[in-house]
Every structure is written in structure tokens, then in C-alpha cells.
């Protein structure tokens, strides 16, 4: 039987701090449309944490930027370690609940453990099977998982930390790789596809 641990508030506080650092890095650049300055344009979201990530629901601020030049005002949405696109559930919930479906005896058991409706779990399952394998990130990563990895967990995580995507010098993370293929209308869409967020070396215990 799978032991389900609830993620604590400190974990999400760390992720929010990292999101803030990522946003600051993007803000140091310029607008890709007009080369104007980028200013903060944060907004509130209403994330769901299910059962495993209830503490994450308190961190509602989505870091965002917008061009400060009159006539442009285009939005730049930096990558996030907490939010997965437009999904209402937190990114970590999407990953954990999807794993629960695979390791638990029934899908109903996964629903009871995660707090995510069965219909939603099935939709996520379709995304993992149909969309995720087509991501450019996975095209580069899959060679590192053949033959199946049989070593310890640190070595498994080490494979993620050494991979670069699309020629980027920074290592990728699971959160970075799970970004959907849907094209974003913000000016930093290309930046988000080509750059990667460093692996969380000091993982929250």
C-alpha cells in the first residue's frame, strides 16, 4: 500500500521564492516585441491542492510581467514551479496524483488518496500518454532511460540534472519538462521553450 504524505507549507514557500527568482531573471531582460522595460503585473489564482497539497492553496500569487512601453503592454509570463499552465490543480498534485493511479490497486483508491476526481485523473492520464511523449524535452530525455534505470534514487535524479534542452546550458527539471505544447501568446514564449530552470539541488525535506 502506498504511504501518502502531505506536503507542508515550507515546501510551497520555497517554491514561491524560486518562482520569484525566476520572474526577476525574466524581468532583467526586455520586451521581445518592442524592447521596452518589463514591470511586475502579478495576479491572483485559486489553486487546488487536493488532499496531498492543501498547504499550497494559500500561495495564490502568480508572478507575471508586462511591458511598460505605451502602445505595447504585452504580458510576459515567466515559468513556474507551482502552476502547470492553466490547470487549476497545483503542478505537484498533477504529478503525484498521476503516480498514484499507476501504483495503487484501483483508480478509486487514487482518488481517495489524492482528492482529485476520477474524471480528472483520466484526463491527465490521456495527457501523459498522448501529449507528453511528443514533447521536445522528452525526445531528448528518453535516451537516458533506456535500458530501464535500476540504480538508486540519487542517480535517477542525477540524470535529470545533467540534461539540457534545445541547446540550453542549464539543466532541466521535471517542472520545466511538463510544460504543455500549447503556444503561449506572451512575448517570452520562446524564452520559456529554450531556457531551463536549474534543478532544485537543495530539495525541501
Topology, please?
Elements lengths: L8 H19 L10 E3 L2 E2 L16 E2 L2 E3 L7 E2 L14 H13 L3 H8 L3 H13 L5 H6 L11 H9 L12 H4 L11 H6 L11
Helix pairs in contact: 2-3
Specify Rg, calculated over alpha carbons: 18 Å
Number of helices: 8
Give helix and strand order, one letter per element, not per position: HEEEEEHHHHHHH
Number of domains: 1
Number of strands: 5
- Average of per-residue pLDDT values: 75
Beta content comes to 5-15%
**Percent helix range:** 25-40%
Low-confidence stretches: 164-175, 180-205
Gross morphology: globular
Strand order of the largest sheet: 1-4-5
Largest sheet: 3 strands, antiparallel
Q: How many angstroms separate the termini?
A: 22 Å
Commentary on this structure:
- 24% of the residues are buried.
- The protein starts with 8 loop residues before the first helix and ends in an 11-residue tail after the last helix.
- A 3-stranded antiparallel sheet has the order 1-4-5, with helices on one face. Strands 2-3 form a two-stranded antiparallel sheet.
- It is mainly alpha-helical and 205 residues long.
- Helix 2 runs antiparallel to helix 3.
- It has one domain (9-194).
- Strand 4 and strand 5 (75-76) form a beta hairpin.
- It has 8 helices and 5 strands.
Amino acid at each position: 500500500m502506498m504511504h501518502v504524505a502531505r506536503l507542508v507549507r515550507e515546501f510551497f514557500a520555497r517554491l514561491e521564492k524560486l518562482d520569484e527568482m525566476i520572474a526577476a531573471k525574466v524581468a532583467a531582460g526586455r520586451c521581445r516585441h518592442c524592447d521596452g522595460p518589463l514591470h511586475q503585473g502579478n495576479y491572483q489564482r485559486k489553486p487546488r491542492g487536493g488532499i496531498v497539497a492543501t498547504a499550497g492553496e494559500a500561495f495564490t500569487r502568480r508572478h507575471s510581467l508586462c511591458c511598460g512601453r505605451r502602445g505595447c503592454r504585452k504580458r510576459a509570463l515567466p515559468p513556474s514551479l507551482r502552476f502547470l499552465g492553466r490547470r487549476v490543480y497545483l503542478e505537484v498534485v498533477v504529478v503525484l496524483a498521476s503516480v498514484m493511479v499507476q501504483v495503487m490497486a484501483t483508480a478509486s483508491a487514487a482518488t481517495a488518496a489524492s482528492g482529485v476526481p476520477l474524471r480528472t485523473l483520466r484526463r491527465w492520464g490521456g495527457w501523459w500518454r498522448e501529449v507528453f511523449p511528443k514533447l521536445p524535452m522528452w525526445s531528448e530525455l528518453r535516451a537516458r532511460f533506456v535500458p530501464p534505470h535500476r540504480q538508486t534514487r540519487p542517480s535517477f535524479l542525477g540524470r535529470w540534472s545533467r540534461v539540457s534542452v534545445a541547446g540550453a546550458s542549464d539543466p532541466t527539471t521535471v517542472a520545466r519538462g511538463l510544460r504543455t505544447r500549447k503556444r503561449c501568446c506572451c512575448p517570452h514564449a520562446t524564452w520559456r521553450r529554450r531556457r531551463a530552470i536549474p534543478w532544485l539541488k537543495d530539495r525541501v525535506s
